[in-house]
Design brief:
The complex is a heterodimer of chains A (125) and B (460).
Chain A lengths: L5 E5 L3 H13 L3 E5 L2 H11 L3 E5 L7 H9 L8 E6 L2 H4 L9 E4 L4 H14 L3
Parallel strand pairs in A: 1-2, 1-3, 3-4, 4-5
Helix pairs in contact in A: 2-3
Chain B lengths: L1 H27 L6 H26 L3 H29 L10 H12 L2 H23 L20 H94 L8 H31 L2 H5 L1 E4 H9 L2 H7 L3 E5 L6 E4 L1 H17 L5 E8 L3 E8 L30 H11 L3 E5 L9 E8 L12
Helix pairs in contact in B: 1-2, 2-3, 3-4, 3-5, 4-5, 4-6, 5-6, 6-7, 7-12, 9-11, 11-12
Classes of the chains: A alpha/beta (125), B alpha+beta (460).
């Protein structure tokens, strides 16, 4: 049997993380969570997830800084990053790292799962 | 410097003139006097004049203040030297009986132009004293008098009344000239000094004002940055919980928390819509200070209006189709280049077109782009319910909602559009009914095609 695809959720909203985790786990994904960019980067290096759901506006290290640090790690280059944002403002900003897709919050669970599946499929998982 | 150069030139002319006069008087008129010392003196004048030429050249390369000071010293030395040499020359050319004794006058005039008033009078006195000394020495026989034989009667220098008369006349003349010259040149110098002082004062004031202004600009910029960060935090903290709440509700609606009844679904959907409205209001409210603190000027680039319009209409097709309306776009074939904030202009066009769709129940919405030499113009024309005449003047006010449209929207869309357009140096206005079709309404705005010098000046 194939190992379950591993997804890292990085978001400072505890409630939102809990709901996303529950939804993704119900689709039998292996979900790990981090509550800021710094923690997310550490977990990404340790756990080597297949996909990352990244919130842009976060304390400690925001999504932009995260992506910048993330881009410097060659070992992480194969991970697909989906950026989540609730602000049209951030959409205009150039991202320092290849983000596979921007998703606009609020994200309906069906959309979330569809996007996750789509990007995992592209990677052949 | 320039004036010292004139003296040097004058000195060359005088040397030539003395040599010529000596030659003519001794060879043509056969006046007898020792010509050799005269030629020697001419040689001396030529020699020191050469030194001054060199000095004047080297003076040009130096600091301005220093150059002026050194030129002054050099000028003083030249004046004294000239005076002494002139006296020696006079002695060998017959002293007081030589009509060229009036050369002292020329010397005094020339020197007085260069000197400040007090020095000019000191020099005049020195000239009078030195002539008197020469005359007295010759009168008492201390220095042998050179007689200009063949030019004047013998012993003219020995006649006291004549000697005194000439001396007094000469002294009076010298002082008179000094007075006239110093009065004129002193006035000129005073004016020049005053001008330099005023100029310095002005420059100093200008520099101080500049420094102050740049300090204030830095302070304002700092404040603006802090304010903008504050707005960012406010936006995040206000919107995040609403966005999260909407996500939670959508999980319930999508059945992740178990099956729900149609009644529950209806209530939850109403909740989502209300939160949507609140999110829009927050975005709009935060937009106003962002625009008013000059965000648009910072985002301005050269952009193509055709592209902006096309992008603005993405997604609005669906909205029009839902209401069975035709959404038509008329774009010129060539690109219209303007200086603008692309995202903000998209916001204006999206706002106008979605308003048009919202307030039109049948027919079409037309977006038309045109230009003249000065402006690019976008028109949004609908066949909708139109605007009441009494509402037209208040349309672009904050929180205005039309009296015939119920309570859709935040009432900030048009006022934000107005701010955006005006920050670009353009104008926005509405007409109802549309002057061409005689129904619905027409919203138009212009954006100047040339880059704006001060785009933020146009704020309300």
């Amino acid at each position: 049997m194939k190992p379950k695809p591993k997804i890292l959720v990085i978001d400072d909203d505890v409630d939102l993380v809990a709901v996303m985790k529950g939804t993704l786990e119900s689709k039998s994904y292996d979900v790990i969570v981090a509550y800021n960019g710094k923690e997310g980067l550490e977990k990404a290096k340790k756990e080597k997830p297949d996909l990352i759901l990244l919130d842009i506006m976060m304390p400690v290290m925001d999504g932009f800084n995260f992506a910048e640090q993330f881009g410097k790690e060659p070992s992480l280059s194969k991970i697909a990053v989906l950026a989540l944002t609730s602000f049209s403002d951030s959409l205009g900003q150039p991202f320092p790292f290849q983000v596979a897709e921007y998703l606009r919050k609020p994200l309906k669970p069906k959309e979330l799962i569809a996007k996750v599946e789509e990007h995992l499929k592209r990677k052949g998982l | 410097m320039l004036r010292l150069g004139v003296y040097v030139t004058m000195r060359w002319l005088i040397v030539l003139m003395i040599v010529f006069a000596t030659l003519v008087s001794s060879r043509v008129f056969h006046i007898i006097f020792p010509t050799t010392p005269v030629y020697i003196i001419c040689g001396i004048i030529a020699a020191y004049n050469l030194v001054f030429v060199g000095q004047a050249r080297s003076l040009q390369a130096g600091e301005v203040g220093q150059v002026i000071k050194r030129a002054q010293t050099s000028g003083n030395i030249q004046i004294i030297l000239d005076l002494l040499v002139l006296t020696a020359l006079m002695h060998y050319a017959g002293g007081i009986e030589n009509p060229f004794i009036f050369f002292y006058l020329a010397h005094t005039i020339a020197a007085s132009i260069l000197l400040p008033q007090r020095s000019a009078y000191a020099l005049a006195t020195l000239a009078v004293l030195i002539i008197t000394l020469l005359v007295l020495l010759e009168f008492y026989g201390v220095v042998p008098h050179v007689n200009l034989q063949g030019f004047v009667l013998d012993n003219r220098y020995n006649d006291p009344s004549r000697v005194v008369g000439v001396l007094v006349a000469l002294a009076t003349l010298i002082y008179g000239c000094t007075y006239v010259i110093t009065a004129v040149s002193g006035e000129l110098r005073r004016r020049q000094k005053e001008m330099v002082r005023l100029k310095d004062q002005l420059l100093e004031k200008r520099a101080m004002e500049l420094e102050q202004a740049s300090g204030e600009i830095a302070k304002l910029e700092d404040e603006r940055r802090r304010f903008s960060r504050f707005l960012g935090v406010v936006a995040h903290d206000l919107q995040s919980p609403l966005v999260a709440t909407q996500s939670f509700i959508s999980y319930i609606l999508d059945g992740y928390a178990g099956k729900i009844t149609d009644g529950q679904r209806d209530l939850l959907e109403r909740g989502v819509r209300r939160i949507d409205g609140l999110l829009t209001l927050i975005t709009d409210l935060l937009d106003i200070p962002r625009i008013e603190t000059g965000q648009i000027a910072r985002e301005m680039r050269e952009i193509t209006l055709n592209e902006v319009v096309k992008r603005s209409l993405e997604g609005l097709d669906n909205l029009a189709q839902q209401k069975e309306l035709t959404l038509k776009v008329e774009l010129p074939e060539h690109p219209i280049k303007i200086n603008g904030a692309s995202r903000r202009l998209q916001q204006v066009i999206t706002n106008l077109v979605s308003n048009a769709i919202n307030y039109t129940n049948e027919g079409r919405v037309l977006v038309r782009v045109a230009e003249n030499e000065k402006d690019a113009r976008v028109e949004v024309i609908d066949s909708g319910i139109g605007i009441l005449p009494e509402d037209l003047p208040r349309l672009f006010n904050d929180f205005f909602r039309g009296s015939n449209v119920g309570s859709k929207g935040t009432g900030l869309g048009l006022s934000i559009s107005k701010r955006i357009v005006e920050a670009h140096g353009g104008k926005i206005w509405a007409e109802s009914p549309d002057p061409e079709t005689k129904k619905g309404s027409r919203f138009s705005f212009t954006i100047p095609k040339k880059p704006m010098a001060e785009p933020q000046e146009k704020r309300e």
